[in-house]
Design brief:
Layout: E1 3-7, H1 16-22, E2 25-28, H2 34-39, E3 49-54, H3 61-71, E4 77-83, H4 88-98, E5 104-107, E6 112-116, E7 127-131, E8 135-137, E9 144-152, E10 155-158
Parallel strand pairs: 1-2, 2-3, 3-4, 4-7
Antiparallel strand pairs: 1-10, 5-6, 7-8, 8-9, 9-10
């Protein structure tokens, strides 16, 4: 499996649809709101796409999960990368737990969730990855490590 992280600015957002047809992408639009930026591509994407979200104490995994679920009804998401300075996998676990229609009770080092709902659930399955600064990991697949060569401006390949 291969994913390419695309860090893009708002003025180049229109290029995302074309690039997504060439390779599997996870997109970030920092310092702007990636979810809002990607939502603006509704109706323009021909293939599923992924997003890259930086979580922190100011943007918690529970809120990221709500944003992912909402965005998944506007565009077809297939991957979400949850990046964090620390405990990235624990943040990703929260997002995975919250992408369901059922009641969520979950506890780990970054969150205690009791009797929460995040409805409606995404219409399609979304693979949630964690990024610890060196590799992407998700249950059931080997980690993907950043390639030493960049694909293009703002693009890093993971394989």
């Amino acid at each position: 499996m291969e994913l390419t992280r695309l860090a893009i600015t708002l003025d180049r957002l229109g290029e995302v649809a074309k690039l997504a047809e060439e390779r599997p992408l996870v997109v970030t639009c920092a310092p702007h709101d990636t979810v809002v930026a990607m939502g603006s591509l509704e109706g323009q994407l021909e293939v599923p796409i992924g997003i890259w979200l930086e979580v922190s104490m100011d943007y918690r995994a529970q809120i990221a999960a709500r944003d992912v679920a909402t965005l998944s009804w506007l565009i077809e998401l297939d991957h979400v990368v949850i990046a964090s300075d620390e405990l990235a996998e624990q943040h990703a676990q929260v997002v995975r737990a919250m992408l369901s229609d059922g009641e969520v009770t979950f506890s780990n080092a970054v969150a205690n969730v009791t009797g929460a709902y995040n409805r409606p659930a995404p219409p399609n399955a979304i693979r949630v990855w964690s990024y610890d600064g060196t590799s992407l990991t998700t249950p059931g697949l080997d980690p993907l490590v950043a390639s030493s060569d960049e694909v293009g401006i703002g693009q890093t390949r993971f394989e």
